[in-house]
Backbone:
């Protein structure tokens, strides 16, 4: 079963967020940029070589080349495009895998994608087990199955009680004739 309309919309939303985060990297791809790198202070309370103390934190500015940002940009574009394509084709496993990959690859920005993948996974499990991906529908199906199991156990226990009482009264059918091949010969008494 493919994605339903709600899941498809969330898949498109996840793809849009991924592509919007990719737009964040475009200014870094055009020119050299500076980033601030922080480090822990040494045991003596001073900063490592090349760092300065700024508000109690050792930091320095580092010039980055556009190629530094290319892998991150490509991850967002490629995986975001894959999530969009799988959402368009209603392929749940592709959206789940793409969401988990993007969530794990992007760190704290990937919490949204991890949540999307987990939500789709839970809905896929419910759909497979109960035939209904919604929480309410799967609970109803689970209750129905539990009642059926209880009813079948009750009928089994009643039938086993009646069969034990019947076996006490006597066998209900004749015992089979002994097999020549498997039954050992009786010894003659003297």
Residues:
């Amino acid at each position: 079963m493919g994605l339903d309309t709600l899941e498809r919309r969330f898949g498109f939303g996840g793809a849009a967020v991924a592509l919007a985060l990719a737009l964040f990297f475009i200014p870094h791809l055009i020119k050299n940029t500076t980033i601030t790198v922080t480090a822990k202070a040494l045991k003596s309370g001073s900063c490592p070589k090349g760092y300065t103390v700024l508000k109690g934190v050792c930091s320095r500015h580092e010039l980055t080349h556009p190629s530094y940002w290319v892998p991150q940009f490509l991850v967002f574009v490629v995986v975001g495009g894959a999530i969009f394509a799988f959402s368009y084709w209603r392929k749940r496993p592709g959206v789940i895998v793409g969401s988990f990959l993007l969530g794990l690859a992007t760190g704290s920005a990937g919490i949204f994608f991890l949540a999307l993948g987990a939500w789709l996974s839970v809905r896929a499990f419910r759909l497979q087990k109960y035939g209904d991906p919604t929480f309410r529908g799967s609970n109803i199906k689970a209750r129905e199955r539990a009642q059926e199991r209880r009813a079948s156990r009750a009928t089994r226990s009643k039938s086993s009680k009646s069969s034990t009482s019947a076996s006490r009264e006597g066998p209900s059918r004749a015992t089979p004739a002994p097999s020549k091949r498997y039954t050992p010969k009786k010894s003659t008494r003297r």
